Amino acid sequence: MRMSKLLAPTLRENPAEAEVVSHQLLVRAGYIRRLANGVYNYLPLMWRVLRKVEQIVREEMDRAGAQELLMPILQPAEVWQSSGRWDIYGDLMMRVKDRHGREYGLAPTAEEVITDIATKEVRSYRQLPVNLYQIQTKYRDEIRPRFGLLRGREFIMKDAYSFHSNQACMDLEYENMARTYTRIFNRCGLETRMVRSDSGAIGGSVSHEYMVLTRIAEGEQESGENDVFYCDSCGYAANVERAESVLAESHEVSPYNATEIVETPGAVSLEIMHRQFKMHPELILKSLIYIADEKTPVMALIRGDYDVEEVKLQNAVVANELRMATAEEVDRLTGGSAKGFIGPIGLPENHGIKIVADASVHGLKNFFVAVNQVNKHLVNANWNVDLSIPASLVDIRRARIGDHCPECEGTLQMTRGIEVGNIFQLGTKYSSSMSATYTDEDGTEKPFIMGCYGIGVSRTAAAAIERFHDKFGIIWPMALAPYQAIVVPVNVQDETQMQLGMDVFEQLEAAGIEVVLDDRDERAGVKFKDADLIGFPIRITAGKKAAEGLLEVKLRDQSAAKDIPAAEVLAYVQQQIKEWRPFAQSAQPTAV
Ligand code: ATP
Ligand code: MG
User: Ligand 1: does its nearest atom lie under 6 Å from the Cβ of 420?
Assistant: First the structure.
């Protein structure tokens, strides 16, 4: 390919609408152009990158024994109605009508369609297990499609679905997919962490996310959208929604002598309680009121120095939705005299509030608690003396940096992560609701046990840029780069330089290397800038030393360059391609 012909419209400035670095660089380096909000044209460079990701995914899925197929984007409403998700999926699904008024959704995912296939075509246990996958465009009317390819409204996803006759077989395939995912992302040059996740609305219980860890420079927009806790001693890693930690021991003792209600005017925050009334947060029983599914009031109790992780609380009360109660709701529920001094003591009779206590409250002794009376606290309260300890204690607290790891002696750290893939055990959620059964060995009809496995193909490409870039542009892992090398004759008017450049270019191309010749009559500075911006892993320059038959070879991720005789360039380039291991050089996320 010649640069003069390549449609790679590079820009000098970052586009105003791009908040994250991958979005900025993809637009600036001429990879993508926006067509509508969250909808992009993939220009030639981008399409090459996406095809590379797809190919790695395809090869590894095939190797793992899965079979590729292709399902339509246009999915009839009926198939979604049969699982009950036509209504539940809500505005996230783009919907269209045909000329007869029939309704369709544009595939946000394909559990329903694949289950429909299995119902009709997989009749017997003899056909199980089976794992089917596709690489297909998906549509989701995301609320905030603002991160370029990281969160588009149209994007490319690999989605796989497996069907099993028993749980042991499901478990084996889950492990098989877990291994496959690690291989896929490693081949993409990306180190990922397999993180326990909350499976949320999709159902099922076992699920993991694959996170590319990125550390966000101060002042830069977050791109991960996910906080991940990890332990560096043992490899424990979990999404914040799920992360556990060992409760930090408290050695605080109450400075009060007696158990009594004391005046605490204006003490509506932990800070005031601590500063003015010597009530240490580790001795405070904190109470927060939420509304689950717009009907059930929930009071969460937790030790004052910890925060409630709302997803954990939502799961603990088995709700689909959870929000903080409004001031009016709190007034109504607590009898109107609390005014911010909310607690589990002194609630009106028949208050109807479900009380959920975090395990951190168990060890509290001589603690401080509000009693639903304005400007008052009970001090030196004790369980089963002043109030009874809740029957069940759960984990609803948000882990903190520095807490002890739940699985070893290590300490938890936090970073941002980009979810590039996930794996789920769905159980019989879809097969039950859609009556998808097979005939088992004993002749009875049984629902399939299912798993599903997603990879964001376009997001993976963007995540690689979030992870590998510098102020000059993209630093592609070799496996994803649109071209592996660029040959730059510094001055195309100089016949020696141009000839040597052409020779090397032709030689590399003949050897199957993906290479671009920058034949433009531009200043060297402009060419080098574009090469760095686009992120060619190898740059081969024919400059002043061309007369001596020497070319300067520079790797994008290193500052030093090397002079190499023309006859040895091919071998050198081949060796660089073979030895490329980007994530090994930076096992831990580095600040950008
Ligand atoms: P997220 O929590 O980021 O919205 P998700 O849980 O909705 O992701 P899945 O429905 O399981 O994701 O989709 C599988 C994969 O598809 C994700 O792991 C992610 O890599 C990718 N993906 C999901 N939504 C988008 C999007 N809007 N744009 C690009 N890729 C996406
Ligand atoms: Mg989503």
Answer: yes
Cβ(140) to ligand 1 under 6 A? yes
Give tens-digit pLDDT for 182-218. Answer: 999 999 999 888 887 755 544 446 889 999 887 644 4
Tokens of 434: 């859609």
158 CB less than 6 Å from ligand 1? no
Q: How many CA atoms lie within 13 A of 571 on its CB side?
A: 5
Q: How far does residue 483's CA lie from ligand 1's centre (Å)? A: 27
Residue 590 CA to residue 217 CA, distance in Å, equals: 9
pTM of the model: 0.80
Distance, CA of 373 to CA of 330 (rounded, Å)? 13
- Whether the Cβ atoms of residue 231 and residue 408 lie closer than 8 Å to each other: yes
Tokens representing 45? 């460079």
Spatial CA neighbour of 84 closest among 103, 105, 112? 112
Beta bridge partners of 411: 404
Whether the link from the prior residue into 129 is cis, omega within 30° of 0, is yes
Q: From the CB of 422, is ligand 1 less than 6 Å away?
A: yes
Task: Identify residue 376 by its one-letter amino acid code.
Answer: K
Ligand 1 atom closest to Cα of residue 452: 11
Q: List alpha helices for 1-67, DSSP H.
A: 21-28, 44-63
Radius of gyration of the chain (CA): 29
State how far the Cα of 462 lies from the Cα of 113, in Å rounded to an integer.
Answer: 28
The number of beta carbons lying within 10 Å of the beta carbon of residue 563 is 12
Tokens encoding 506 = 């032709």
- Element spanning 355, H or E: strand 354-358
Give the model confidence (pLDDT) of 548-588 as tens digits: 999 999 999 998 999 999 999 999 999 999 998 765 444 33
Average pLDDT of the segment spanning 343-347: 94
**Ligand 2 centroid to residue 107 C-alpha, Å:** 13
CA distance 184 to 207: 18
The b/e string for 14-47 (b: 16+ C-beta within 10 A; e otherwise) is eeeebebbbbbbbbbbbbbeeeeebebebbebbe
Packing angle of the helix pair 167-187, 44-63 (nearest 10 deg): 140
Q: In the numeric block, which tokens belong to residue 308?
A: 């409630």
DSSP secondary structure string for all residues of 239-288: ETTT---BPPP-----S--S-EEEE-TT--SHHHHHHHH---GGGEEEEE
Tell me 397's DSSP state: B
Residue 228 has pLDDT above 90, yes or no: no
Kindly state the tokens that stand for 505: 């270019």
Specify the DSSP class assigned to residue 490.
S
Quick one: which of 349, 351, 289, 348 has its CA closest to 317?
289
> How remote is the CA of residue 503 from the centroid of ligand 2, in Å?
49
CB of 522 shorter than 6 A to ligand 1: no
Residue type, 556: R
User: How remote is the CA of residue 583 from the centroid of ligand 1, in Å?
Assistant: 23
